[in-house]
Amino acid sequence: MKINNRQLFWMIMMLEIGINLLISMTATILYAKQDAWISYILAGGAGLVITYIASKLSSRYPRQTLIEYSVTILGKWGGKLIVIPFILQWFWVISLILRDEFLFIRLSVLYKTPAWVVIGTMLGVVIYTVYHGGIEAIGRVSELWGPILMIILALTFALTINNLNWPMLLPVYADTGPGPIMQGALAPVSLLGESVLLMMLFPFVEHPGKGTRKAVLLGVALSSVMLLFGVLWVIMTFGPAVSGRLQFPFFEMVKLVYLMEFIQNMDIFVMAVWLVCIFVKLSIYMFITSYGVAQWTGKTGSWKKISLIVAAVSFILTMLVIILNPPAGLLLKGVWITYVLPVNMIGIPLFLWLVSAVKANFHTDIRR
Amino acid sequence: MFRKISSVFLALSLILTGCWDRQELNDQAIVLGWGMDLMENGEYLATANLVLPLVSKSGGQESGGQSSTSGFMTESAFGKNNRDAEQNMQRKLSRVLFPGHRRNIFIGEKLAEKGVFSIMDEYGRSPMVRPRSNIFVVKGGTAQEAMSIAYQLEANPAIAVQKIQEKSGAPISRSLLDFFIMANGTGCGVMPALSIETPEVNTDKKTPEDSPPQTTLSLYGAAVFNEKLKLAGYLNYDEFWVRLWITNRLAFRNFTTIINSIDADKPGGAAADALSGATRGKTVSINVDTFKSQITPVMTGALPKFRILLEGKGFIEENNSPLNLSRPDNVQKVEARMNQYLEARIKKVLTKVQKDFKCDIFGFGDTIHHRHPYQWKKLAADWDTIFPDIDMDITVKLNLTGTGLTGQSLLPTRDGGEEK
After folding, report:
1. Helical pair A178-192 and A210-243, crossing angle rounded to 10 deg
2. Does B181 touch chain A (CB under 8 A)?
3. Whole-model pTM?
4. Which residue from A111, A238, A258 is facing B181, i.e. has the nearest CB?
5. Is residue A368 part of a domain?
6. What ipTM is given for this predicted complex?
7. Does residue B87 sit in the same domain as residue B161?
8. What does the pLDDT look like over B26-71, one tens digit per residue?
């Protein structure tokens, strides 16, 4: 199972764009209003920093996943304990993305189809890919669909250009100020920061090294740019007040495409590539969860069997989330931004990096 | 093993998915238009314009002679709101109401006067409906009256009003979205207004084949809503373009004014001539198809002022005045006269909106907000009381680039004209 740098680039990009387009925009525009684009620039920068730290850390142990090198760095007990938040996060992400996907599908296309069918079919395809193809299949799917996603997004931006009204972006900064802009940036940062899962993917890359770091950083950068365009377009189409109230402003914007009578209803294309994005994201998470749990329990060889268990658990968890129906805003703000962002994306990687750097210095000191 | 199981599941998913949402076309009543009226007793009356499935595909075999059946039907029901009325309407329908093509919404005048706040939420909330929709106020009538009229050129009156709106020079099919955006801006809103018009002159039908003008639907202009989203008044067909030009949305428009003399210093009579109600005489018509507007707030002094520069590019389409248009200076006279006329006309409409409606439908407040955000914070709260008294300085600059196929008219020179 090997992927190359280009495949990793497309994987990261699809992973970042899909869910961000759906859920982060409203949260950001609600705080930062017409300055949401500044938030997205800040978020892109912060996302790059987070990715850089994680990839630097992984570069120190190019043949090991996070689960392995945390043990190398902190010893058996410390290493196993410190990755528990990650394993929790992965299960959490899978079930929440599935829930969001279900909600969106139900709102847009399938109004009456029961939840278990929508989730079950998606999970079925995901587990099929992960079980049979592993990370290699996911990499190839991304390589194929990534450019298509780019083309569809570019087409969307081009076709909606006549709906844009640039004075909607004014006044810049005066209505909001640094507080709301930073607060608005939190949601996209916390989603862009998901690139830290590269710590699990690093050893699967053919020649992990500087090129890999570059690919990942480029992936995050390009997706930030796409999201920046997306939020600019949304604000210029609907204005800050209306787009802050729409649940999925980006997709409402796509529905507005109306050119020469016959170019209409573009949303079905965007929806299709978006579903592929979600599929790629879920597959990556499914893979690293299965592989991570397998390594964590010390049975790396049987990760395929574990993936079936992971799928079953995620299915149950998702149904639970759907039944309990916690508000999406609360989950994003109350859990994701308050715990996952500082702990999993910043805290632990930075801590591991520091310890590993100190240790390395210590060793060289002793050797001297 | 796994392969077998998964293939079974994949096959199952192909068969099973979609079943729950299956809706045969034969079981759908496609809604093209939706109307809401307020009754005397406070209940809402909803009217749906439905496609008649059998008639709409005619034209093939059964097209012998004029069929008396129309291509649409309307159904109505009382209800507490849109959804409630829809459910009540379903009692009378053998097919499920399908609002996916509901592109036109009609609001009765009574309901508009009482305020549209109580019914408009659904138009933005329902996931079945596309955001590109038209919303109309029916001036002097109910939504049901307007929706019941058989429109001759189109199979369906809902399609007819949509097409009429597209030909008015206003942005196409986004009046609902624009209403939401405007209501979130300075708080006022504008919707296009329809009216039911009887023929100007009644002509008798002498033989059964005659087709004199009938009562029909027409675009009246625009309905203005105040910040409580209640109807404040109408701008008629000769007034509503002013808002579109000032807000940079007008696509095309013809203008006609009267030119009396060819005196070099005074191009034509006073501007008041054209506004006085004179409808015939020595008229000139131009067609303008490129519009530009620039609003500059001037923040010196206690109250803000606005400098409004309106530019347009067009050509002369009709000239019944003695002016010889083959001479460039005469074209300039038409330009100057037209500028004068339009300035007076626009001023009149602005004053009407300021004094009668007291709502800032032109987005003047927004320009202060955009250009002088910190000063706007002090003004925003009282904007509705400040707006009626602010001064506007309007400048119209037309650029006429052509005179049509002839310079000088093909008709011989008339009184007051030049020999060459």
Report:
1. 130
2. yes
3. 0.87
4. A238
5. no
6. 0.85
7. yes
8. 888 889 999 999 998 888 999 999 988 765 444 444 444 444 566 8
